[in-house]
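Same chain as my last thread, 600 residues:
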Amino acid sequence: MAFLSLGDLTGKAQSAFKRFPLTILWALCGTLYTIWVVDAPKEANTDNQTNIILTFILGISWLIGSQFFLEQLKNFKKAIWLKPVLLLLLFLFYWHLPEVDTFDDDPLYLVRFFLFLIAGHLFVLFAPFLFKWNKNAYWNYLKAAGFAIVRSSFFSGVLYLGLVLALLAIDALFNMRIDGDIYFQLFLFCLGVVNTWIYLSDFPKNIHQQQEINFNKALEVFVKYILIPLVILYLLILYSYSIKILIEWELPKGWVSYLVTALAFLGFTVQVIINPIHKTVKSWTINRFYPWFYILILPLLLLLFVAIFRRVSDYGITENRYFVILLAFWILGISLFLLFSGKRSLLILPLSLFILAILSSFGFWSASSVSLKSQTHQFQLVYENVLQNNKLATSDEYTQLKSILKYLDDRKSVNKLNDITGIEIKEIFKDTISDDEVTVYEWFDSQKILDSLNIALAPNEFETEARYANYYNYYADRQQAQNYTLQGYRDLTVFIINENTTTNASIGDYTINYDHENNFLCLLSLKDSVTLHEIQLRPKLLDLSKTGPNLYDIDPKEMIMEVEHENISVKIIFDELNFHKIRDSLRLNSARVFLFLKQE
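reply #2:
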């Protein structure tokens, strides 16, 4: 593999711009806009900055692929409408994106973006061969694409490293402070402009005329001594695991599905590389790779299907499981196609993946739609099972219900459960904070939903219930304690409550103990240690829990209790507070308390 010299780049850069003017201008505008966003003042921020950047990123691969596609047409000018249509589609993608605050919370749009991004890169891999096919030309095209990626990454990486070292030298030698954002902006420029420009300059224009196979020694060594040994290693690991689960008679772990998928893609990569020479090259491993790899992977696909459908059966479909299932069927189909098809055209690999990526991004069959329906159905199944058990849930059921609630809330679809639960979840179960009489929704409390539905852990699950606790914390401003005064009270004491120690304090004629089991303070007579007064803290703690786990911004007046108890008056101020709540059960873990007392 011969790398281009820097002297060759100028002429190639000019040719690349003449050939891909729209793509390079698109990459340049997107990069400069992103660089501006990095350095822009906060007041210049707008809600659509992320959307604009994502649209620029998405457009590069699609514009490259469209140019390759157009160049192979006999009548180039009649298809010139393709690029305006593509620009319109990119605008429609930008237009369909939500505001940034919604975009950050809802993964649906990110999933769709990545599907379109993957589809765009796959489009580049087959665009010149949609209407004209030649096996050798296609292999040379893929080889050129791979080498172009390596060369462009190398040159842009060297340029970035050199510029960074130059800035560091200026900073060290001349005591000039270089803003840290400049290094990131340089990285963006080298990646977005330099890397793209060099990549485009390496592609031959007459793609279908490149039909001579040049399978050099370096490529043969890479396949024979790196890729194929890795394939054999993965096969040994997976077959060993298969024997293990057969001996122990257990179901495979869900993680194995990712390993089988990785093995399949590695095998397909080897197949693409060796395709034109696997019968002629003098190498036993390359000669025998086909068909033995596909024969050996078929039993492992059974392992893959069992692993993924076990997870689906237990927990329903999510976007990740949807794509694993989709890839599992795709791997099975491609393996059978390559085994039994006479043509064994490599074009089927990127073309079929491209179609699947596009189709899974929209419609009732899409990843998001199928996942939402599955998780809603899964919630209904678990919920009905819990109802049949007198609303007592196992720890797994309890965890699953909370997980599904969080999943649906992230996708702004928790209202789909209203008909199942009979309550308006979206409106009632949002914990809020208020600022200047404006209510701001901050978090979704799935625990409140389960509490409201009276779902509890079964008695034999109590030992694991700590995982479902909500924790509440408060620490007063240190200046605030200096303002505490008696204000009509006669005595004052400060004491610490800790779940691991016994509270020991006295005030007036009383000593103070805290009952952790029942959440009340005991005022005992100093003379005979008889309990004279009990001050319940539970109602106050329950009231505080309604404001959410973060109590730091609460009005300090809310941390005060005043109690009239027979012949005494007590005021309690929580200066520090930490407690947890499991449904209606409370546990005060620690507190620093100012207690004021006056006796009639």
